[in-house]
């Protein structure tokens, strides 16, 4: 039963993040190209970085949820930090790599 909840939450998180990503990318393209008149290449790189960040954070959250359920912390918030820490670490690594 808990696995179903984890999958449902993970899917919901991904859908929300994708929606946010679409809005941010659209606004970013309009502002970047029309207002600032930056090159298309700059916008492409920014979009790639953001999409990577979304994927990394989503994976981090899913891993955190799975770990939490595996550790039996389904009801409490005691293990929530696992996903947050994993996501933050991955984002930091990604930023350094870029």
Protein model, in words:
- With 98 residues, this protein is mainly alpha-helical.
- The chain has a domain at 39-98.
- It is built from three helices and no strands.
- It has helices at 2-36, 40-70, 81-97.
- The longest helix has 35 residues, at 2-36.
- The radius of gyration is 16 Å and the shape is elongated.
- The mean pLDDT is 69.
- Keywords: Membrane, Transmembrane, Transmembrane helix.
- The chain crosses the membrane at residues 6-35, 42-67.
What composes the largest sheet? Answer: none
Estimate percent helicity.
over 70%
Structure class: mainly alpha
SSE pattern: HHH
- Please tell me the overall pLDDT: 69
Number of helices: 3
* Uncertain spans: none
Report the end-to-end length measured between terminal Cα atoms.
Answer: 40 Å
By DSSP, the count of extended strands is: 0
Strand residues, percent:
under 5%
* Rg (C-alpha, Å): 16 Å
Overall geometric form: elongated
Present the secondary structure layout.
Blueprint: H1 2-36, H2 40-70, H3 81-97
Summed up:
The protein has 98 residues and is mainly α. The chain has helices at residues 2-36, 40-70, 81-97. The chain crosses the membrane at residues 6-35, 42-67.
Features of this protein?
single chain; 98 residues; mainly alpha; 3 helices; 85% helix
